[in-house]
Amino acid sequence: MGAVARDLLTLYRGGEDVPIEFAADIPDDLPRISAREAELKEVLSNLLENARAAIEAKGRVVIEAVSVPTAVEVRVRDDGSGFPVDLMGRIFEPQFSTRSTGTGL
């Protein structure tokens, strides 16, 4: 998990026009997870892109991972404006996006 996050963050830190800090908070002793690396990268990349788009000026995006009783929980936090409350019920609908360029994946 940590290596995937570090690889992605290296890409997002380079060439940034807007002053956004990208960071990771992933413990070294995090249990190993079973995941397809390419799919994990795709999911995290989509979340990082959404976070970057949500920040209008200067801000911070953090990938976090914590061990919970039966799994590893991964979160992407940002300083963006947040998701409109009235659309929260739709966030997991396929192809739903609040942006004209979004695919909702």
Question: Which key terms come to mind for this protein?
Answer:
105 residues, alpha+beta, three-stranded mixed sheet, 3 strands
Give a written overview of the molecule.
It is a single chain. The protein is an alpha+beta fold. Helices cover 29% and strands 23% of the residues. It is built from two helices and three strands; from the N terminus they run H-E-H-E-E. Strands 1-2-3 form a three-stranded mixed β-sheet. Helix 1 packs across helix 2. It is globular and about 40 Å long.
What proportion of the residues is helical, as a percent range? 25-40%
Element-level helix/strand string: HEHEE
**If helices are DSSP runs of H or I spanning 4 or more residues, what is the number of helices?**
2
User: What's the N-to-C terminus distance?
Assistant: 21 Å
Query: Strand order of the main beta sheet, please?
Result: 1-2-3
Outline the secondary-structure elements.
Layout: H1 2-13, E1 20-25, H2 37-54, E2 59-68, E3 71-78
Question: What is shown here, in short?
Answer:
With 105 residues, this protein is an alpha+beta fold. 29% of the residues lie in helices and 23% in strands.
